[in-house]
Amino acid sequence: MQATLRTPRRAAVLALLAALAVALPAFAQGVAARDAARLPEAATATREMVVTAHPLASEAGALMLRLGGTAADAMVAAQTVLGLVEPQSSGIGGGAFALWRDGANGALVTLDARETAPMAATPERFLDAVAAPLEFADAWQSGLSVGVPGVPALMQATHDRWGRLPRATVFAPARRLALAGFPLSGRTADQVEGLLKRNASCADRLFFRDPAAFAHFVEGDATACAAKPAGTILRNPAYARLMRRLARRGAAGFYAGPVARAVVEAVRSDPNRPGDMTLDDLAAYRVIARAPVCVGYRGRTVCGMGPPSSGGVAVGQMLRMLEGFDLGDDPLGERALHLFAEAGRLAFADRNRYVADADFVPVPVAGLLDPGYLAARAALIGERDMGAAAPGDPPGAAAAGAHVRAKDSGTSHVSIIDRFGNALSMTTTVESSFGNGVMVPGFGFLLNNELTDFSFAPVDESGDPVANRVEPGKRPRSSMSPTIVFDAEGALSVVTGSPGGSRIIGYTARALVNALDFGLDAQAAVSAPHVQNRNGATEVEATGETVWPGYDPEALAAALKARGHETRVAPMTSGLSMIVVGPDGRLTGGADPRRDGVAAGR
Ligand code: DON
């Protein structure tokens, strides 16, 4: 990665970084204490904005923008801080998908930095000795689930091509915070505690079995242990060393040398189930530039990530099917939510059957988005719930698929617009909470468990191979849906996306409908209560984390039941972020009130 513009004055950079280390912990606590009953207001800006799921990461990104950096510079700063302060959700040991809109020429590029299966992997990877699928927790907390990480290569590719600040500058906020310390968030502490409770005892641990992760997140020993309390000042000098190394050597400092050896050793010596990653697997990792998946929606163009993510196709299908309906003017209107749930059913039936890594199995992307095909699918939507939807037969269909599972907390979304007209929409993940639970010795980052996004069963009930089966060098299917919307003139309009496992698709589609159909501002669009259907029960968000005056989930569920829906009222922890570009070019940003994020801009 090269600095392509002038180096900012050193004194100014040092002053800003010092301010970051001192001021941000206080800022973080202030945000955590905000009034949960009030709908937060959207942030506004005229030049540039970054929205992430943690105030320290948003501020690190915003700092890069203030220094004259681009969205690429801001992304590296935000991602490296997220890996430190929100390590349960994303980091250096994970993967990501990013959409990049180039301000210079208006081009849209999508970058696939998904984790990749080692070359030794086989379709039977997640089967036990009697060919039964492993328990999810057993596979999750193991070396088998670790895919070759993509985030370091994505940071390098993005910064090389579009960055303007020196590498030392973009890695500096994370390095400084790792050395100075930052307050452990309540969210991280709660998740540590939740996982500790799943162990048989402090001595007999599957979760936090790794001594480095145990020492970092937990206090106590084998006789008594508990999560470090929220507010504990955490330092991570090993992570600071890693930041320094990446700043000096770029991604090569990760995929070869001591970091690569430490990753391979950690994977292959896992105390639960050892994996099979090699140094060659790491050396072979590549970010893949793929064609965006775009659909027209009510005069705009909505673009997302293609396979191996199912996000772009499924969000696109839902919107195209909904376009034929009048959704009314109430974002919580019961008929609009019924229609939205039905579109979700149909999209999930297709997603589950057809979408996987298109470099390994044929995925009929054009057929799945074909207007005639989607018109026929939309015609299946009536005034009552259709019940379980069967997959359709889109033009060009060939493959089969399976397997849906909800995930919590292992993912984060970053939205950025800079003063140069560039936009980045990136969903970044370690899969489940704290990835596979192993912190790489000496370098302070967690490994992912992304390979559990593959189907554990290599064949379906009829014995046919499942599209999303494990194969060597393949990337597991994802639901991540980083999205960028353009208006009728092709100008940048909306940047959005969310974590939430397979619920990501519904969260993202719903936020888009809230903004584009109901005219909600960016904050309201991400705050509005969720309703969605993944081709099972219709899920209605319980009150608690959602922030919406007068919302009554039981009444909404009853109204949907009257239309034949089986409903489930449940917490739905999305982590949406959104930036909307107004007609005057002003930016309006919103961060999901269900997580700790903020929009920072000016
Ligand atoms: O790629 C995927 O679809 C999943 N690994 C994402 C997991 C996730 O969103 C977890 N949580 N919030």
Automatic annotation (TrEMBL):
Its EC number is 2.3.2.2, 3.4.19.13. One of its GO terms (biological process) is glutathione catabolic process. The active site is at T411 (nucleophile). It comes from Rubrimonas cliftonensis. This enzyme consists of two polypeptide chains, which are synthesized in precursor form from a single polypeptide. NCBIfam families: g_glut_trans. SUPFAM superfamilies: N-terminal nucleophile aminohydrolases (Ntn hydrolases). Coiled coil: none annotated. Keywords: Acyltransferase, Glutathione biosynthesis, Hydrolase, Signal, Transferase, Zymogen. L-glutamate binds at R114, D453, S478, S479, G501. This is Glutathione hydrolase proenzyme. One of its GO terms (molecular function) is leukotriene C4 gamma-glutamyl transferase activity. It holds the Pfam family G_glu_transpept. Residues 1-28 form the signal peptide. Pathway: Sulfur metabolism; glutathione metabolism. Belongs to the gamma-glutamyltransferase family. The lineage of its organism: Bacteria, Pseudomonadati, Pseudomonadota, Alphaproteobacteria, Rhodobacterales. It catalyses: an S-substituted glutathione + H2O = an S-substituted L-cysteinylglycine + L-glutamate; glutathione + H2O = L-cysteinylglycine + L-glutamate; an N-terminal (5-L-glutamyl)-[peptide] + an alpha-amino acid = 5-L-glutamyl amino acid + an N-terminal L-alpha-aminoacyl-[peptide].
